Amino acid sequence: MRFVGFLLMVSGWLLVLAAVVLLGSAGARGAFVFAGVAVEALGLILVFRSHLIPREEKR
Amino acid sequence: MNTPALTDLATVACLFFIFLTPLAAAGLALINTGLGRSHSAAHIMMASLSALSVAGLVYFAFGFGWEGFSGGTFHALTLSGKQWNWIAAEPFFFRKLASDGSPAYLSALLQVFCVGLAAMIPLGSGADRWRLRASGISTALLAGWTYPLFAHWVWGGGWLAQLGANYGLGRGFLDVGGAGTIHVLGGLTALSITWILGPRRGKYSADGMAPAIPGHNAVLILFGCLLALLGWLGLNCAGAILFAGGEPSGSELIAMNTVLAGAAAALTAAFITNVRFGKPDASLTANGWVAGLVASSASCAFVVPAEAVVIGSIAGAVVTFCIEWLELKLEVDDPGGAVSVHAIGGLWGLLAAGLFARFPGTAMNAVGHSAIGTESAPGQWLAQVIGVATLLGFVLPLTYGLNWLLNRIYPYRVSVEGERQGLDLHELGAGAYPEIITHTEDFLPR
Q1: Chain A neighbors of B445, CB-CB under 8 A
Q2: Chain A within 8 Å of B4 (Cβ-Cβ)?
Q3: Taking 80 as the threshold, does the pLDDT of residue B440 lie above it?
Q4: Of A28, B231, B394, B396, which has the maximum CB count within 10 A?
């Protein structure tokens, strides 16, 4: 889950870069940038969840 | 695209502001020390001094070569006909950098302090369990690669700064005093460190409780806040002159905005904790103060005082809830509150710059250095969002990955015995407060 989370975060950033390079209109560029940020947020949630401490390891 | 020379007045003012900057590091060191336990107090101060030393030397050796300065030599990619400046190509060890009062030299001098400040941020998160040598190695990584790379993109004429010139996104990514470059980068590194180290022993018990481990000295924390203000005034004013084309006369507005943002944030945090807990909480108020200063850094030269108050108030409120949320819900054991204060506060400051910043006729960014005559900056908010996306989608995975790898080679966490004993005795051989007897029953295995 941790690896997938980080992979999603990098993928989201690449989506943002692609939107900047490939899209001309402000609306489309803005929409895809926010889509990329949403993918990053999803990855961040996964990474946070993967770092929750299992009950048996709490001490 | 050559960097214009500064006037004599601007050079003297800039030097004065740069000399104030180490006070931000001193303040942060005191805050981190006060928020940690008494049996690791000397260790945190020692780690802070080590971080400043290692960061400065590594930045001198390699960092400046990667970061460079606006108008310097660089490597670029060409994508869809646009030039993407992605890394500097300056020689290592400050070779070819003449000490002639040029903006390039002043920038290098400021960066030596900035990179040290960024390196000190994770120390608060790793308090009580991060080995001194490991923190030094991690600092070298930050100062030698992670920081210079992102700082080049923002302050060295890199692709984030070029977003305005290349794609019409406002003035490009705006970060006058380092809200993103110093604080979010340091805060995200702090988050990586807390994840890699895990929580302090006894922080999260099997019965689902997360007992508070309060800081040991509120006086250090609050005095650190006052010192930090002086450092921030220098940092924001010097950054405005070097990276945003500001005049020394504009420093009065920057100073006003910086103070007001910090004050509004501290009062908001004090008010919220007073309402929630019946009394204002000193450590959360201090964290609110610093978060306000952090948030002010991005746009301090381009907002009016009323907007600085709004930015600071929101920073203070967000940090108050964020610290609790991270600690209790997400199980991030961050004794210094570095993730909330620096990462979240800085991210809010960057977004606020996109919402509130307006540009006078003399405003510039790191690319172009020509006067920009209109106040409106369409697309500025999108440039800020792209910068935030870069911090979350590139910097966080990079800094986590590098620190994870280093931790595999040289374990970051101190032994169980060392944690029980306290890092002062375990790693330094002497405590900060030798007259205090440690109550070892607090540290018995559960």
Answers
A1: 59
A2: no
A3: no
A4: B396
Work out the angle at residue B237's Cα, subtended by the Cα atoms of residues B234 and B240, and round it to the nearest 5 degrees: 140
Q: Distance (Å, rounded) from C-alpha B127 to C-alpha B131?
A: 9
Domain spans in chain A, listed from the N-terminal domain onward: 2-52
The answer as to whether B3 is a domain residue is no
Q: Which of B87, B336, B345 is nearest to B220 (CA)?
A: B336
For residue B13, what is the DSSP state?
H
The count of CB pairs under 8 A between chains A and B is: 78
Is B196 domain-assigned?
yes
Residue of A nearest to B331 (CA): A52
- pLDDT in the model for residue B374: 46
Q: Which residues pair with residue B83 across a beta bridge?
A: B78
**Is B1 within the bounds of a domain?**
no
Q: What percent of chain B has pLDDT over 90?
A: 82
What residue numbers bound the domain in which B176 lies?
Answer: 8-443
Cβ neighbours for A10, distance < 8 A, ≥ 6 positions apart: A43, B393, B394, B397
B2 domain residue, yes or no = no
Residue B370 has pLDDT above 60, yes or no: no
pLDDT score for B372: 43
Q: What is the DSSP string of A10-59?
A: HHHHHHHHHHHHH--SHHHHHHHHHHHHHHHHHHHHHHHHHTSPPGGG--
Average pLDDT over residues B408-426: 94
Does the distance separating the beta carbons of B206 and A33 come in below 8 Å?
no
